[in-house]
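Subject: sequence -> structure tokens, single chain

Hey, anyone have a minute? Need the predicted structure for the following. Not urgent.
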Amino acid sequence: MPAPERHEGTILVADDNELNRELLSSLLGQEGYLVVCVTDGEQALQQVRNDSIDLALLDVLMPGKTGFDVCLAIKSKPETRLIPVVLLTSLTGDNDRIRGAMCGADDFLSKPVNKHELLARVHSLLRLKQFTDELDNAEAVLFSLALSIEAKDPYTEGHCDRLSKYSVAVADKLGLSEDLRVALRRGGLVHDIGKLAVPEHILLKPGPLTPEERKIMEQHTIAGERICAPLRSFRHVLPIIRHHHEKQDGTGYPDGLKGEQVPLTARILQITDIYDALTTDRPYRRALSIEKAFAIMREEVKRGWWDGSLLHEFEAVVHTQEPVLPAGRAR
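Reply:
Had a minute. Here:
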């Protein structure tokens, strides 16, 4: 008879009943899972904060913090919200299941627990967690590649992080959806990732580019879109990457879009991009003051280049929050 399949993963079991903890630990341990047991909700949250947990099995009725409380806390934090949570309960009312769903629970199991149902649910949720982790790893690689471009030029230190933070602040002010705020956070970091395809002698050239060199440089938006396109989670990021060099009058690139044709998220990022370029040191000039930078940008709005209403919103953001200042930046 072949040996039973061994599974990987660390599972947190939180239950104030010792017999329940021992039963769950035994069933899961026999399958090869590493099991961490705690007796109450506060200990459960401490384990989630301190250790790498792949799945949490939470008893609903625990002293102090209930399973509902712990589930809500886990799902409320970006760093833990993708951990699958299964609530274990002897409660049978629909209201309790609705409450659990509202807290973000991924599944329910009724007590007494059926062994085969337990293992099937755990295995399924851990496979989903594995896919999510792989997606996170792919995103992390893209972010690292984007930062490697920034690191080549000492004048762009911190540029991507500042664009990310400023863009999200504008999105917050405009009341944009969470999906678009996340896209702007990611877009700020990876908007220039297509410069990986630009030869370094062009990318780092200190003087003006020739027409041929500029044509090559302008392809970075298309290359960046192509690099990130396989990630479905980046579907809202792709328009930012491709269109953050368009202009309101249609003279931008790569597609010559005009006015409202330029996606709102791309318009937000380009405003922050221009501002950051003006207010940081460059090989050919010192950083401009905030006032001078906005004066130049308002003139460019009159020429039909940028979205004037967004510039107004961005000015309000800059003047109401503490900016992140790199070395050499004008105050």
